[in-house]
Design brief:
The chain has about 120 residues and is α+β, with helices and mostly antiparallel strands. It has a domain at about 65-80 and about 85-100. It is built from five helices and four strands, in the order H-H-H-E-H-E-E-E-H. Helix 3 (about 35-55) packs antiparallel against helix 5.
């Protein structure tokens, strides 16, 4: 009996605090909370980002690499027999390697232009 009375009291108290909405307010609330519309808006934003990404294909791509090394004396030294003599052998003690590469796409069978047209759509 207490549960039924509690449910009736809660229903009545919720009804007293009800707020009235206009049709315009209900339409705005429905559009703000519609998942399909939110997904569509996110899709439009993603397409704008894809368009900006497609524009970067016109610019050269640059990459570089550098490495330096120094060997320990005990690690890279040795000896090699040459007849009656023993010749000391030092393989690599220190060095430096580096490279830079720049690639500028000139024509990729229309892939860049068609990619940008598709991003515009």
């Amino acid at each position: 009996m207490k549960k039924i009375l509690f449910i009736i009291l809660m229903t009545v108290s919720c009804g007293m605090h009800a707020q009235e909405y206009t049709l315009q307010q209900l339409q705005e609330m429905a559009m703000q909370n519609n998942k399909t519309l939110k997904n569509a808006q996110l899709g439009v934003e993603a397409a704008k980002e894809d368009k900006a990404k497609a524009r970067t294909n016109y610019f050269p791509q640059v990459s570089g690499m550098a490495a330096g090394f120094r060997g320990f004396d005990d690690l890279l030294q040795g000896s090699m027999p040459a007849g009656e003599k023993v010749m000391p052998l030092s393989l690599v003690k220190k060095g430096f390697v580096g490279s830079v590469m720049a690639v500028q796409p000139l024509f990729q069978g229309g892939q860049i232009i068609n990619g940008n047209k598709l991003a515009d759509l």
